[in-house]
């Protein structure tokens, strides 16, 4: 019974984290769009790095 409860809690935490990561991804994509329009290479590279980190975490959670 304990295993079932722990499994359910972990699944809920993973689902919550996935939702947060998707919101972060949307924000970073919007920021990247602004950086491209402003021709700001530094900001563009930072957004790409952040998006890659988000992608890696989503892959670990098997949400992609």
Count of structural domains: 1
The gyration radius over C-alpha positions equals 16 Å
What portion of the residues fall into strands of 2 or more residues? under 5%
From the N-terminal CA to the C-terminal CA, the straight-line distance is 30 Å
Helical proportion, percent range: over 70%
In DSSP terms (H or I, runs of 4 or more residues), the helix count works out at 2
Give a count of the beta strands, DSSP E runs of length 2 or more: 0
Structural class estimated from helices and strands: mainly alpha
Element order, helices and strands? HH
Calculate the mean pLDDT score and round it.
91
Poorly predicted runs are: none
Sheet of most strands:
none
Shape field: rod-shaped
Polypeptide structure, described:
This protein has one domain. The protein has two helices and no strands. The chain is rod-shaped. The two termini are 30 Å apart. The model has no long low-confidence stretch (mean pLDDT 91). The protein has 64 residues and is mainly α.
What is the fold's blueprint, element by element?
Elements: H1 2-38, H2 41-60
Helix pairs in contact: 1-2
Task: Give keywords.
64 residues, mainly alpha, coiled coil
Quick description:
This protein is mostly helical and 64 residues long. The protein contains two helices and no strands.
